Description:
Strand content: 25-35%
Helix content: 10-25%
CATH class of the largest domain: Alpha Beta
Number of domains: 2
Structural class: alpha+beta
Distance between the termini: 27 Å
Largest sheet: 11 strands, mixed
CATH topology of the largest domain: Alpha-Beta Plaits
Shape: globular
CATH architecture of the largest domain: 2-Layer Sandwich
Number of strands: 11
CATH superfamily of the largest domain: Pseudouridine synthase I, catalytic domain, C-terminal subdomain
Radius of gyration: 19 Å
Number of helices: 7
Amino acid sequence: MRYAARVEYDGTDFAGFQVQPGARTVQGELEAALAKISGESLVKVVAAGRTDAGVHAQGQVIAFTDPKGRPAKELARALDALLPEDVAIREVRRVSAEFNPRYAARYREYRYTVWNGPRSPLRERYALGVRDPLDTAAMERAGSALMGRHDFSAFGVAHRQPVRTVHSVRVRRTGSLVTIDVAADAFLRQMVRRIVAALLEVGHGKESEEAIAAALASPQPAFNGATAPAKGLSLRRVVIGPMRAKATPASTTARTENDDREDIYGP
């Protein structure tokens, strides 16, 4: 039987999601736990996105096959007992045999968190500490230049297909807490962190809002490849299913009571 599940993890001590020889990874921990449950040498796990070293997730979506076809609740309990403290599994359910979250994802949403206040060791474990005031309104306006379908080579690691569709870029402040949410059909490696680094330049008044649009149009790495630290980034949610025909940036990213729970993984 094929199953899907939502996974939450603290990426601090991981070398990323994807299995790497000699490194601790989220995929490695999940596959080791599933192998123990099934008695198989390997149970392959696929995910909606491959987060980098140090990046967290609240709403990563995975899929795997259990050769014995156990009930979803039984699998969830068994996995919960075997996984380490920095990985948790939620909402295990049966799916079609062909289900692959990488291709089934309608869009993914990442959140970058900035602590724009006095030094705070606890908050800054999962957020970038920034002491100087940020102009979040200017950051929000600058981010709008990135919305739509573009070649994002300037904001990501080189890829043979660098065209992506960004549905929304939202910058919000609550006291000293600043969040930057970016939703897109897919992302290049380091794309969100490079977008955040660019928006922070605008927030500090070091770059203009127009500079973001100019950087996007340039073949060169934006702002010399500046990349925000991984610790502030989290894969917030993944929405599964075909894009609605009349979807708009607002409707594809704003969670409402009318959303179909069967299609949504995430907070």
